Amino acid sequence: MAHKSFALIICLCGLVLAGGPAATQDGALQQSLPPMALDAQLVPIMPALPSQAAALGLQCSVPQSTVAREAPLTITAARIEAGKRVRVLAIGSSSTWSNKPSAYPSRLEKMLENVWKGVDVEIVNRGVSGEIASGSARRLINEAAILRPQLVLWQLGTNDAVARVPIVDFETTVRATVRMLHKNGIDVVLVGLQYTPKYARDDHWFAVRGSLDRIASEENLLYVRRDRAMEFLAQTRSVADISPDDEFSLTDLGFPCMAEHIAQAMVANIFLRRNGDRRGAPAAPPTR
Amino acid sequence: MHDSDHNAAAAANETRLAARPRLEAARVLNQVDFWRGYALIAIFINHIPGIVYEQFTHRTFGLSDSAELFVFLAGFSLRYLADSKNEALVGPRLFMRLEARAFTLYSAQILIVSLALAMMAAAALLLDTPLILQWNNAAAFFESPVPTQIGIALLTHQMGYFDVLPLYIVLMAMAPLIVWIGRVSLGLLLACSLAVWAGALYSEFNLPTWPVEGVWFFNPFAWQLQFVLGFVLSRPRGLVETVMRNGAWLRALGAVIVAGGLWLALIGWSPNPFELPEPRLFFMNDKTFLAPLRIIHMLGLAMLIAGLFVVAMRWRGFIHLARPLCLLGRNSLHVFCAGSLLSLAGQLARFALPTGLVTDTIVLLTGVAVMLAVAWGNEWRINLSR
Fold first, then answer.
1. B123 interaction partners in chain A (CB closer than 8 Å)
2. DSSP per-residue string spanning B207-234
3. pLDDT at A68
4. Chain B: nearest CA to A237, how far in angstroms?
5. Hey, which of A53-57, A103-107, B288-292 has the most confident mean pLDDT?
6. How far is the C-alpha of B186 from the C-alpha of B230, rounded, in Å?
7. Is the CB of A94 less than 8 angstroms away from the CB of B270?
8. How far is B137 from chain A (nearest CA, A)?
9. What confidence score (pLDDT) does residue B37 get?
10. Which of A76, A267, B169, B178 makes a 20 to 30 Å CA pair with B112?
11. Nearest residue on chain B to A158, judged by CA atoms?
């Protein structure tokens, strides 16, 4: 029945496909990387943490100040102190996607459970890769109302940069959504952009990154600066024998380390708060 | 006037049903094809996030969008197909006809998904931007192809914007049951459908996706109601005739609902899901579960626009709009498939080309032109094989 117009569709795709250069064959390169020697400048990931947490992997070591903009996670911290189950809703764009054991939500769950002994961490994954923030926002609010998590892990930015979403629209959406979640007693962690050396020269990418910085600081959010962490790794890795034009495998580099970086940021902020309390510093202000 | 319109629509569908050449029927314009054509263009635009023209589709001016309209009209057409006066489908013929249609839809879904993945892969290589491989929930395929390929075949892996056909496939596979219950009693059908929908909203039940953890974007247990509403309100004595007959007050009610939706959309109102009583989904504006607000808005819209096509056709210039839109609507599956890929091509083009109104306009015009060419080519093929 459909032959002719499907043929048209195929022709259309042929136009897109025509002239595609040969594929890079080095997809597996990053897996075979030798573990990088720990740079003297690198702060050990979390000195105060149990040894399991330190096993986050040397390959992913990035200074804490690079990984995250710090902010307290009051709701989650209270749950952990009470020894109650912590439910995390992971939502957003790329790479929030898989439920295989090696994927980031499962690994993050295990890492957090290892660190917060006795606390049951449940990560509910509602990631759709390639979604822009305005698409995630409504879904996020509705899912949060249904699932009632203590913490929302919102990965965003890359696709808005790619889809050229106006910065004003992006910022309005993100702020409104974050405020709504805070108002309803849910901690929010923003997970920032993906990094590739080529894309990091794009103006809109920079604008989105600037916007996320602004939102995080004005709304007082814990913000995992994935792009900075990846950039740091990419730069240090390029010394360690990676062909600099192999951008595909550099992107892959972000995935194995993502759970590590988020866990690092989350755990450090809970501990930060506790240390502060011990020193008699004023308790962290409520997020909102 | 409306009777002739209806007979024409029926004739068009009966011709299709009997698999006879539909040369004459193809030229008859009717409102189902017209609005379907509009919905196809609106879906094409809405599936290019960030495009300037997004704000001119009816989604911006109300609580429902082109997805509701499309599924509603699909139910509307099912009734034409199953209950045509000349040749009502019964027994095994009905079953096989509808299941074959479901299989055609399934084939189309598999084809467009594999082409979409190829387009994204090609663009990633061509533009040297691996981030493209992450778009539209495609990351799973490129990073973990073994389970994802199984998921694609099972329809449990749904790429963003390629998640409408899986719903339609399930609805079409269930269509013999819908037609059969509808023949026993339309009231019974509506009651069953409402019960399943309400059950889904109450229990928050949805089909899971795999291997990506999540749920179906269009929950079939909820969305079957939109399809059944289209089926029930179709002829005979369907929505159009009822509205035409009882004209004024039904249309006024539709106008009030649509005006209310417009006002809510313009002030940006949406119920705060945290403050709603249980069961929450009945009060939320949730697309996945087809919330009541969206159904009411869609029905209001249908009451308002039903029969307007006939009125507009009295105005001579309208034919220039009606002809192309009906052409699209008559070939809706082909155009839908082309539109899905064109939306993706549009996303890629907007990434590759400089940002701005010029790019967006080129994307829109090229997209609509190719959709028209696909529809025209399909009818040309049918006429040739006569």
1. 16
2. -EETTBTEE-SS-HHHHHHHHHHHHHHS
3. 80
4. 19
5. B288-292
6. 12
7. no
8. 4
9. 97
10. B178
11. B131
pLDDT (average), residues B278-289: 90
Output the pLDDT for position B16: 45
Q: Which two tokens stand for residue B125?
A: 């290589």
Residue A54 has pLDDT above 80, yes or no: no
d(CA A118, CA A116): 6
For residues B37-48, average pLDDT? 96
* Sequence-distant (≥ 6) Cβ neighbours of residue B109 within 8 angstroms: B155, B162, B165, B166, B169
Beta-bridge mates of residue A222: A189
Using the beta-carbon criterion (under 8 Å), do B212 and A23 form an inter-chain contact? no
Of A127, A164, A196, the CB nearest to B50: A164
Residues of B (90-109) whose Cβ lies below 8 Å from A: 104, 107-108
Per-residue pLDDT tens over the stretch B296-331: 999 999 988 887 888 899 999 999 999 999 999 999
ipTM: 0.74
CA distances from residue B54 to A57, B59, B297, B345, B361 in whole angstroms, order as listed:
45, 8, 19, 16, 12
Q: Is A93 on the interface with B (CB under 8 A)?
A: yes
Q: Are B101 and B172 in contact (CB under 8 A)?
A: yes
B357-384 and B332-352 helices cross at what angle (nearest 10)?
A: 150
**Is A162 in contact with B355 (Cβ distance < 8 A)?**
no
Query: Is residue B268 within a helix (H) or strand (E), and if so which, with residue range?
Result: none
Q: How confident is the model at residue B339 (pLDDT cuts 50, 70, 90)?
A: very high
Q: How confident is the model at residue B134 (pLDDT cuts 50, 70, 90)?
A: confident
pLDDT at B229 (0 to 100): 94
Of chain B, the percentage scoring pLDDT greater than 70 comes to 89
Please answer whether residues B98 and B180 qualify as being in contact, where contact means their C-beta atoms are separated by less than 8 angstroms: no
Q: Does the distance separating the beta carbons of B137 and A184 come in below 8 Å?
A: no
Give CA–CA dist B323/B306, Å, rounded: 18
Residue type, A46: M
Return the residue in A104, A107, A164 with the most chain B beta carbons within 10 A, the one to mutate for interface testing.
A164
* Contact: A4, B381; criterion CB under 8 Å: yes
- B360: enclosing H helix or E strand: helix B357-384
A62 vs B160: which has the higher pLDDT: B160
CB contact under 8 A, A129 and B140: yes
pLDDT (0 to 100) of residue A130:
64
Mean pLDDT: which of B43-52, B103-112, B257-266 is highest? B103-112
Q: Looking at chain A, which residue has its C-alpha nearest residue B279? A: A146
Nearest Cα to Cα of residue B113 among B74, B148, B70, B63 = B148
**CB-nearest partner of B130 from A4, A166, A196:** A196
In whole angstroms, how large is the CA radius of gyration of chain B?
21
Write the residue in A166, A199, A255 that is nearest to B131 by C-beta: A199
Q: Do B286 and A142 touch (CB under 8 A)?
A: yes
Strand duo A222-224 + A68-69: pairing: antiparallel
Whole-number Å distance between alpha carbons of B299 and B258: 9
The chain B residue lying nearest A197, using CA atoms, is B129
